[in-house]
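for the recovery benchmark. tokens below, seq after
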């Protein structure tokens, strides 16, 4: 399995920030197993959440990977560029990244990104993205196939379906609409009802 934790250690000089803001768009919205100084709903632009990353270590296994979210860049000519990707921003200390780099080591790299807060303030933040070059990337599939894989997968961190349902619930709590996540949820609920 890949391990991006060492690469991430040297990607940014965390001493350069007065405040470190981490933007969470997936499990970081609801699985907050790290200390933080502040927490605020926020959004980023130009990116969409997609269940296109394989999970071999948390919600699936090497043999039967689950699917978890990553972000994909929106084609700059599309109107969707103006659609916010809503998530939760956490003000954290640099030490938190030792834990998170390990937790998200299956292909995620840390990037810098402008994060917009509810009051319109924009601050530079950090974000984890797993791009198509990483070996755990599964890429696009139909909504129904993604829901089927999520329905069938489980790993050391639990059922893949719980990851999806928790994410959808957390997005609703943030008043965020995410067509991709909510339509996978609809398919999944149908599979669960007929199981
Ligand atoms: C997040 O919730 O922001 C996140 C998702 C996947 C990997 C790392 C972080």
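predicted aa per position
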């Amino acid at each position: 399995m890949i391990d991006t934790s060492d690469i991430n250690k040297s990607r940014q000089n965390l001493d350069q920030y007065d405040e470190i803001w981490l933007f969470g768009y997936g499990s970081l919205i609801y699985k907050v197993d790290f200390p933080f100084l502040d927490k605020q709903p926020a959004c980023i632009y130009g990116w969409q959440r997609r269940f296109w990353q394989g999970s071999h270590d948390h919600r699936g296994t090497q043999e039967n990977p689950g699917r978890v979210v990553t972000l994909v860049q929106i084609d700059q000519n599309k109107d969707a560029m103006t659609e916010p990707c809503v998530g939760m921003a956490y003000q954290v200390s640099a030490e938190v990244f030792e834990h998170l780099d390990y937790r998200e080591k299956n292909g995620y790299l840390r990037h810098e990104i402008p994060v917009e807060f509810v009051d319109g303030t924009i601050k530079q933040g950090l974000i984890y993205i797993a791009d198509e070059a990483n070996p755990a990337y599964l890429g696009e599939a139909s909504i129904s196939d993604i829901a089927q894989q999520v329905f069938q997968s489980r790993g050391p961190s639990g059922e893949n379906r719980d990851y999806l349902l928790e994410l959808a619930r957390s997005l609703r709590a943030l008043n965020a609409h995410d067509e991709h996540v909510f339509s996978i949820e609809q398919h999944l609920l149908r599979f669960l009802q007929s199981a």
